[in-house]
Every structure is written in structure tokens, then in C-alpha cells.
Design brief:
The complex is a heterodimer. Chain A is an all-alpha fold. In chain A, 54% of the residues lie in helices and 0% in strands. Chain A is elongated and about 80 Å long. The N terminus of chain A is likely disordered. Chain B is mostly helical. Chain B has one domain: Cytochrome Bc1 Complex, Chain C, CATH 1.20.810.10. Helices cover 69% and strands 2% of the residues of chain B. Chain B has a two-stranded antiparallel ribbon. Chain B is globular and about 65 Å long. Classes of the chains: A mainly alpha, B mainly alpha. Chains A and B meet through α10 and α11 of A and α10 and α11 of B.
């Protein structure tokens, strides 16, 4: 037993399996609970996973239906082989896969005790390029991989900034049209 | 008796006034402190026009079947050039349309503009508002997401139980309408097909027929001026017409900016926007669109029968306003309209919080 514990790679494997592999806590419920507390919104596993009920099961996007080839792409296997850039897990959605690639192993492991680590690790990224950084989206309980999902007020400000020139031209064109129409009256 | 009916019809449809001179050249609009209320009907109609145009643009891409409906909406939103803009314009203008229609109704009521000979204008207006809400209800199901399907289930259950407290055969209509709207006992492909048909063909036809009568009668009797201190008159064409167009253009600018900057769906949390899958867990927060909340929250806390009966009575009262309220003073009219407006705002904005407090 003592020898087994000394074997670092085995421990790594067990820990990774616990968080990312085929253990019952695959859906990383601590992270979900953390976001729900912060955003006061009720979420489900589809925040990071392909399937709404998480990875355990035999439906599309769940472990039971994965081929051997697909299993090789999971975070667990790619981490083991030291290729985290190649992670393209069919059980994770775009954000889930991004999260695994973006954060290092330690952060993901520590995040079970302190989910805030994940949020901190996402401060400089904006996966969907909607102008709201991913850590804010996580705290708001909005999808970081959907440019149409976000806090409406933040989206308004960011989209005004992004489309400022276009909106100004539209406003000028319509106001000129209104002025010319009113001049027609005289 | 017949003479009375004919005379009453003659008063409402003075055929001698139907000519180009009266409709365009001679027509005048009174100018007074509250002239802005004359633009509300036009703004409602403009929103309807946007609905028609954007709806026609969405039509080639939307697939009304439960397997592809959600994906087709995603395709419109993420892949069709300007698809999201058109979809947002459609959604935002529907909300604007209902908002302006309600304000239009309240101002017409407050200023007693429904009085003889404008009773028919009022009644067609009320039915048009109900149809507009029908557009909202049927359109809500079309994206086939968690919120739309589950909210429609709730709506159908309310409709089904709406007459269940009545004795004998009188309890049947609710179930009859609910079953026929659903096309069965639950929300399925039949429901989606029926709602789609209602949303894009049946309701628009009824709406167009009624709006033709509504506009024709507005044009025939002119703007109501009895309740105002008229300062002067301006020509309908071109003065009022051009100002009306300018208001429409400004409204279009506001809608365009909102549609470009705030995705309509961003007010929903993501589990509600996910594709509806049979037997999947129902996410929390299922509720109807904001314009049904004034009815939804009372249903949550008060006895259903009471809410349904009083809603029906209020609808009849509103429809027959020219008969029931004509003797009431202008002051009472303004107070009723104000009270209604305050109720609508409070129930829509703070209804959820109030329900939570009551439940505690």
C-alpha cells in the first residue's frame, strides 16, 4: 500500500480520474454550485458538458457511447500523455474543452476546494468574443461560449463600443431622413 | 327596431364621407396638449409592419418540426448573414408592439375617445390587442427550447382548466380548445404545426381584416377631439402624415440599435434556452413572456377559478367599454387608466418578488 502511494504517476492518474475521467464526480459539481451561488441562477451540467445530465450515461455526449478513438481525446487521456492541447473531449462542450486547455492541471485539481481558482484563471480570456471576459461570464452564470448569452447590460455597453461607427452612421442617416421629411412639410 | 339598427349603422359608417377629398385633402387633425397620443396607434402598426417584414425574412430558414426547429433557430442566429439582427428585430418589435398597443388602449380609454360613433373602432382595437397577445403566445413555442415548450404546457393547462369549475357541458370549452390547439393530450409535433399555422397564416389574416376595419373607421370619423381644448387644426396630409412617418423612422432607429446591441434571449438563463428534449429535467424559472406576467402571477397566488372568472369579466368589460363606462366622468376614466397602468407595471416588474413574499 505504502509503495502504491509512493508511485506519483499512479496518484496523478487516480486524481485525474477523479476529476476528469470516469469517476462519479465527473460533472464537477463544486464548480456548478459555486457558479449558482455567485450568479443566483440555476445551472445544469451543460454549462461545461455536452450532455445536460453530465458525462455519466449511455446517450450522445456521454461516456457510455464513446468509441475507443473518442476516449483517447478526453481530457483524462490527453493529460496522461502530456498533450493537453489535443484535448477535444466529446463529453465536454466548447467551454469545457477550453477550460481544460486554458488552465493547468494544478488549478483544475485545486478548484474542487476553491472553485474561485478557475474564475481567476479565466480573467484574461473571452472565448466567445462578446466583450465580456470569461471570469465575469462564469460569475454571472452566462455561457462563456455563446456570444448571444451574457448580462444584457454588459452586452449593450460592449456592443455599442464594438458597433459604435455603424450605429452612428445609422443614426445620422435616419435623423437626416427625418429632417428632410419634416422639411417636405413646409 | 330595424330602422334603429340601420340608423345606428349609418352613424358608424357614413358612406357619404367615403371619398378622396374627405380621406386625404380635407381631413384635419386637432392640435392640443395631448396630441402625442394620436401617434401611438401608428407606432403599434409600424411595429406590426416590422413583424411582417422580419417574419417573412425568417420564414425561409425556420423549420416547423420538433427535430429541426431548435437547430434552424440556431442556424439563423449564428450562420445566416444578419440573421440574428432580423431575429432580434422580430422579437424586440413584438414587445414594442404590445407595449404601444396597451398604452394606446389606455390613452383612448382615459380620454373617452371610444364614444359614439367610435364604438366599433374601440372593439376592433381590443380584439386586435388580444390577437397581438395570441401572436406572442403562438410565437413563443416556435424556438422549441425548454422555456417555450414548458411555458406552453403551463399555458395550455390554464386554458384547459379555465372552464372546469363550470357545471355540465359548460366545462367542456376549455378542454376542447386546449386539446384542439395542442392537437392531442400533450405538446407534440401537432402542437408546433398548429401554432406555426396560427402564427404565420391564420392570425395574420384575421389581424389584417380587423386592422382594415379599425383604420377605415379611424379615417372615417377622424381623430377624437371631444375631450380636449383644441388649439388649432393641421392637415392630415401632408402635415400629420409626415410627422407620423418621422416618428416611425425614429422608432425604427431605436429598434435597430436595441436589436444590434441586446440579444433578446440574453434575458433568459441558458438552461431555459437549451433545446427541449422529452423527459429531460425541467429547468427552474419557467414563466411566460413579460406581457403575460400580469395574469401569470395572480394565477400563482390566488385561486385559479377566481382569477380566470375575473379575467373573463374584465375582458368583457373592456370590450363593451362604450356601453358600461360612457356615463362615468373623465376624471374616473383617467383614474381607472392610471390604476391599470400602475397594476400592469407592478405586476410585470415586481410580480415575482411579491409572489415570493406572499409564499413565505
Amino acid at each position: 500500500m505504502y509503495r502504491l502511494l509512493e508511485n506519483k504517476s499512479l496518484i496523478t492518474l487516480v486524481v485525474l480520474c477523479f476529476f476528469l475521467g470516469s469517476s462519479p464526480v465527473l460533472a464537477f459539481s463544486e464548480f456548478q454550485t459555486y457558479i449558482e451561488q455567485k450568479s443566483k441562477k440555476q445551472l445544469n451540467c451543460a454549462y461545461c458538458h455536452s450532455h445536460v445530465n453530465g458525462p455519466n450515461g449511455n446517450e450522445a455526449g456521454q461516456l457510455g457511447l464513446l468509441s475507443e478513438e473518442q476516449k483517447q481525446l478526453t481530457a483524462y487521456n490527453q493529460f496522461l500523455q502530456g498533450n493537453k492541447e489535443l484535448v477535444n473531449s466529446p463529453i465536454l462542450n466548447e467551454f469545457g474543452n477550453y477550460l481544460v486547455k486554458k488552465l493547468d492541471y494544478d488549478t483544475i485539481v485545486k478548484a474542487q476546494d476553491d472553485p474561485n481558482k478557475i474564475v481567476e484563471g479565466l480573467k484574461d480570456s473571452d472565448l466567445d468574443r462578446d466583450g465580456i471576459n470569461d471570469s465575469e461570464e462564469v460569475l454571472d452564470g452566462t455561457l462563456p461560449n455563446d456570444p448571444l448569452d451574457g448580462n444584457p447590460f454588459k452586452l449593450l455597453l460592449n456592443n455599442i463600443k464594438k458597433n459604435c461607427v455603424g450605429i452612428c452612421f445609422q443614426a445620422i442617416a435616419i435623423l437626416l431622413l427625418i429632417i428632410s421629411l419634416l422639411k417636405l412639410r413646409n | 327596431m330595424f330602422e334603429k339598427i340601420i340608423q345606428s349603422l349609418k352613424d358608424r359608417f357614413p358612406t357619404e364621407k367615403i371619398n378622396f377629398e374627405n380621406f386625404v385633402l380635407k381631413k384635419e387633425v386637432p392640435v392640443h396638449k395631448l396630441s402625442w397620443i394620436y401617434y401611438l396607434g401608428g407606432m403599434t402598426m409600424f411595429c406590426f409592419l416590422i413583424q411582417v417584414i422580419t417574419g417573412l425574412l425568417l420564414l425561409p430558414y425556420y423549420q416547423p418540426n420538433i427535430i429541426n426547429a431548435y437547430q434552424s433557430i440556431e442556424y439563423i442566429s449564428y450562420f445566416v448573414p444578419s440573421g440574428i439582427l432580423v431575429r432580434n428585430l422580430h422579437a424586440w418589435s413584438s414587445s414594442f408592439m404590445i407595449f404601444f398597443a396597451v398604452i394606446h388602449l389606455l390613452t383612448v380609454f382615459a380620454t373617452k375617445s371610444y364614444q359614439k360613433p367610435r364604438e366599433l373602432t374601440w372593439m376592433t382595437g381590443v380584439i386586435l390587442l388580444i390577437i397581438t397577445l395570441g401572436f406572442g403566445f403562438t410565437g413563443y413555442l416556435l424556438p422549441w427550447n425548454q422555456l417555450s415548450v414548458n411555458a406552453t404546457k403551463v399555458g395550455m393547462e390554464i386554458l384547459q382548466s379555465s372552464t372546469s369549475f363550470l357545471p355540465g357541458i359548460f366545462k367542456l370549452p376549455g378542454e376542447f380548445f386546449a386539446t384542439n390547439l395542442r392537437g392531442g393530450a400533450s405538446i407534440t409535433q401537432s402542437t408546433l404545426s398548429r401554432f406555426f399555422a396560427l402564427h404565420v397564416v391564420i392570425l395574420p389574416f384575421i389581424f389584417l381584416a380587423l386592422i382594415a376595419i379599425h383604420l377605415f373607421s379611424v379615417q372615417l370619423h377622424g381623430m377624437s377631439k371631444e375631450s380636449f381644448k383644441v388649439k388649432r387644426y393641421e392637415k392630415f396630409f401632408p402635415d400629420f402624415f409626415v410627422k407620423d412617418l418621422a416618428v416611425w423612422l425614429f422608432l425604427f432607429l431605436v429598434l435597430l440599435v436595441i436589436a444590434q446591441t441586446i440579444p433578446y434571449d440574453s434575458f433568459l438563463s441558458y438552461p431555459l434556452k437549451a433545446q427541449y428534449i422529452d423527459n429531460s429535467p425541467t429547468p427552474a424559472g419557467i414563466k411566460p413572456e413579460w406581457y403575460f406576467l400580469f395574469l401569470y402571477y395572480p394565477l400563482e397566488v390566488l385561486p385559479k377559478t377566481f382569477v380566470i372568472v375575473s379575467s373573463f369579466l374584465i375582458f368583457v368589460l373592456i370590450l363593451l367599454t362604450p356601453t358600461f363606462f360612457k356615463r362615468l366622468s373623465m376624471r374616473s376614466h383617467i383614474l381607472i387608466a392610471l390604476f391599470t397602468f400602475v397594476y400592469l407595471v407592478i405586476s410585470t416588474v415586481w410580480g415575482g418578488a411579491i409572489v415570493q413574499i406572499i409564499r413565505k
